[in-house]
Amino acid sequence: MGGGPKPEHLLVILPFNPPTTIFERIRRNHPYIEIVFHQLHFTNTPWVSRDRVPPEIFHDATLLITLSALPPSPDDCPKLELIHFTSAGTNHIANSPIYTDTDITLTTSSGIHGPQIAEWTILTLLASSHHYDLLHQWQNKREWGRDHYGLGLLRNVHDQVGQRLGVLGYGSIGRQVGRVAKAMGMDVIAYTANPRDTPESKKDHGFIVPGTGDPDGELPSAWYSGTDKEDLHHFLERDIDHLLISVPLTKQTIHLLGEEEFDILSKRNAFVTNISRGPIIDQPALIAALRAFDDHCSSNKTFADGNFAIEPEQDIKADTSCPGLRGAALDVTDPEPLPPDDPLWRAPNCIITPHISGLGSAYVDRCFQVFEANLERREKGEKLINVVDRSKGY
To answer: What is the number of other CB atoms lying within 10 angstroms of the CB of residue 297?
Structure first.
């Protein structure tokens, strides 16, 4: 009798050209897999395609790799056993009948985004704290900037040594940001929904890009957990200078951060970074907190030689009477795309990018690395990684 794995039909539906080198690798390592590729073109609205995927294309598929295209109903995919998503989350398909009405195994590409999103996080943090917009303005003007206002700002730049990073959601992205922050001399504290009070519970059991992250969970100086407001506030009250939001979007995390939470963070005039999903933040409350800080700073400026100036010895960051948040970096908004007339565009000290922090040349290959790792595990009868728990929403 012949042995070996059973024949598999892999359907790949993605919004770019076929990754032929990757397909060759899969065929070489898993010759029992037949691969069918279907290219999909997306609109400017995230997750929404311009094309209709014919339902019959799903009929023979046993494996599916996709961003958001799914069979219309369970009847259209009678053989489907595993769906791998090229995104870190699945909130965008949570209402699909494939999600709600089947037990097909779902896996994500969580773990691949850490390197590039960590770099974006540090990039935007430093661009804000080092007033890069001012420096770039000087360069564009071919001006060796020496005005009192500009020099006043730069004399008051705070480096990150000794500052505290609070990671709200210590997953693969949070761990890599923590790793980089630690190298910069920052203290790192973590918050997770469930307690991580044993060495084993602190480990990262998902996909890890080699040489990155915090595989054993050793970086945080303190670890906090919980699922209610009291627990969250206890964490936010730990003198956080920079808050990274990296929790998944679920019903429980919608507007997780609002006026109360920003008031707590205002005690240190924290910088807030959101690389998760826009609805986790109450945007009007964020705008108000940013404006409060900006208004206070404006009231502390004085004229010098026709320009606003900050005295060299003045330290706004250390002024405990200063309300609000000193800045924010948002790669995600609510809604997306953000309408041109949305007030968030005009929020002071706020960097906005169009949900691109995770993009990079290694993205596609790493997505498939997660899938291929699970192929190996599946063949050996081992537990898969990055499996979605539908009861939790991630």
So the answer is: 20
The Cα 394–Cα 386 span in angstroms is 9
SS3 of the chain = CCCCCCCEEEEEEECCCCCHHHHHHHHHHCCCEEEEEEECCECCCCCCECCCCCHHHHCCCCEEEECCCCCCCHHHCCCCCEEEECCCCCHHHCCCHHHHCCCCEEECCCCCCHHHHHHHHHHHHHHHHCCHHHHHHHHHCCCCCCCHHHHHHHHCCCCCCCCEEEEECCCHHHHHHHHHHHHCCCEEEEEECCCCCCCCCCCCCCCCCCCCCCCCCCCCCEEEECCCHHHHHHHHCCCCCEEEECCCCCCCCCCCECHHHHHHHHHHCCEEEECCCHHHECHHHHHHHHHHHHHHHHHCCEEECCEEECCCCCCHHHCCCCCCCCEEEECCCCCCCCCCCCHHHHCCCEEECCCCCCCCCCHHHHHHHHHHHHHHHHHHCCCCCCECCCCCCC
Q: What span, in angstroms and rounded, lies between the C-alpha atoms of 254 and 261?
A: 13
Per-residue pLDDT in tens (0 to 9) along the chain, 394 residues = 456 788 999 999 998 899 999 999 999 999 999 999 999 887 766 566 667 899 999 999 999 999 999 999 999 999 999 999 999 989 999 999 999 999 999 999 999 999 999 999 999 999 999 999 999 999 999 999 988 888 988 999 999 999 999 999 999 999 999 999 999 999 999 999 999 999 999 999 999 999 999 999 999 999 999 999 999 999 999 999 999 999 999 999 999 999 999 999 999 999 999 999 999 999 999 999 999 999 987 544 433 333 433 344 344 444 557 899 999 999 999 999 999 999 999 999 999 999 999 999 999 999 999 999 999 999 999 999 999 999 988 8
**Residue whose entry in the numeric block shows the structure tokens 């995927």:** 53
Give the global pTM: 0.89
Q: Three-class SS of residue 113? A: coil
Instruction: Please answer whether residues 103 and 75 qualify as being in contact, where contact means their C-beta atoms are separated by less than 8 angstroms.
Output: no
